[in-house]
Specification:
The complex is a heterodimer.
Chain A: E1 8-11, H1 15-27, E2 33-36, H2 39-48, E3 53-56, H3 65-74, E4 83-87, H4 92-101, E5 105-108, H5 113-128
Parallel strand pairs in A: 1-2, 1-3, 3-4, 4-5
Chain B: H1 10-28, H2 63-73, H3 82-166, H4 172-205, H5 209-238, H6 241-251, H7 262-278
The chains are: A alpha/beta, B mainly alpha.
């Protein structure tokens, strides 16, 4: 599978942010992007079809990004999925919590296209090690 | 109160994240894999805050106990009539009740007032972010327009020259010159479109304010709904008894605000309207 075929799932309760992320990913050459509006929605999609990468917000109704991350890491079939958190949560404790829960990367909103690119590439690099 | 206010610089925090992940990775080498995380299996959302039960005042009351305790602690010089005692107790109870209510009111007023500066800060943040976004969009648009206009003008000019060429109105030198100009133009177009594309991306990225302000606005809606409920509770507690009986029943069931469900909020809004009208406001 080519690098650009990576199947992304973008999880955010704000459609504007989902569109921004989708467009940024497209800009970086990733055309295979699907969207979910909260953790519950995302989990259903992750269990129903194959994804290679999850980009998720933290603050969402129903199931937030941290809970989604915890479920993914506890799920035998999903636990190896890279999860990049893109969130306005910028408190130290939250960042430490995300790192300990197994997040693969952390981007604080608002962010630039270059920042997203940098974090994605770092995760891809780690995956290949 | 921005997302980053009490938190320092995003770069530093992201670096902190990376260092923890790196440390984790080192720790788990060579046993590759992701550290086990205890997942929260239970996602049941706890019942909304308004669901506190109002304690029912059904303490058992035995008149003979009351009389006995009064007669033990209170020995009037002149034998008091039972009706006087009841009257006295009644006044005491009223004083105590008023004092407690005033205390409660003060706390409620304090709480309601304290949410106002928070809401004001949040609104200021929304104003700043939307202003910045508008500036970014206008700047990018103004920067992109001349690029697009220049390409249009050059294309029209070259197209006109080529038309002359097809009408055989150009000599060899003019044709050579046209070929050169066309070459330069075609080489330049991708540069211009790339620059325009970058401005379009800038316009797109400027929309990220919507996510941040959206979260803040949701919080402000919560604050104002809360404030409304607290003011209504104050109003109810101070309303004449007759009006309370007429209007209070619906609201005393508790502040059944459910910010997640707009339909319910609308119902509570109708009740609020009715109540205010009933109280003469």
């Amino acid at each position: 599978m080519g690098f650009e075929d990576t199947r992304f799932l973008v999880v955010d309760d704000f459609s504007t942010m989902r569109r921004i992320l989708r467009n940024l990913l497209k800009e970086l050459g990733f055309m295979n992007v699907k969207e979910a509006e909260d953790g519950v929605d995302a989990l259903a999609m992750l269990r129903a079809e194959k994804f290679d990468f999850v980009v998720t917000d933290w603050n969402m109704p129903n199931m937030n990004g941290m809970e989604l991350l915890q479920v993914i890491r506890a799920d035998e079939r999903l636990k190896h999925l890279p999860v990049l958190m893109v969130t306005a949560e910028a408190k130290r404790d939250n960042i430490i919590m995300a790192a300990k829960a197994g997040a693969s990367g952390y981007v604080i909103k608002p962010f630039t296209a270059a920042k997203l690119d940098e974090k994605l590439m770092k995760i891809f690099q780690t995956m290949q090690e | 109160m921005t997302a980053n206010s009490d938190t320092g610089d995003s770069e530093d925090l992201e670096a902190l994240f990376d260092s923890i992940v790196a440390a984790n990775r080192k720790a788990e080498m060579p046993a590759k894999g992701i550290p086990a995380v205890s997942a929260k299996a239970d996602y049941a959302v706890s019942s909304p805050a308004g669901a506190e039960a109002i304690s029912s005042k059904n303490h058992s009351y035995h008149p003979e106990d009351f009389v006995r305790s009064v007669s033990l602690t209170h020995k009037p010089t002149i034998a008091a009539q039972p009706s006087d005692v009841i009257d006295q107790i009644g006044h005491l109870t009223r004083t105590l009740h008023d004092a407690l209510r005033d205390l409660g009111l003060n706390k409620k007023i304090e709480k309601a007032a304290s949410s106002i500066p928070d809401a004001r800060d949040r609104l200021n943040y929304v104003a700043t972010l939307t202003h910045q976004a508008a500036e970014r969009v206008l700047n990018a648009t103004e920067a992109a327009q001349p690029l697009v206009e220049k390409m249009e003008v050059d294309a029209y000019r070259l197209s006109g020259q080529w038309q002359l060429m097809f009408e055989k109105q150009l000599d060899v030198e003019e044709f050579k010159d046209l070929a050169m100009q066309t070459r330069v133009f075609l080489q330049d177009v991708p540069k211009q479109t790339k620059a325009t594309h970058a401005y379009l991306m800038e316009i797109m990225m400027a929309q990220d304010f919507q996510d941040l302000t959206g979260q803040v606005i949701k919080k402000i809606i919560d604050i104002t709904e809360n404030l409304e409920q607290q003011l209504l509770a104050l109003l109810l507690e101070n309303a004449p008894a007759r009006m309370k009986a007429d209007q209070g029943a619906g609201l005393l069931n508790g502040p059944a605000i459910n910010p997640g469900v707009r339909k319910d909020a609308a119902n509570s809004q109708n009740r609020v309207d009715d109540l205010l009208e009933g109280l003469g406001f």
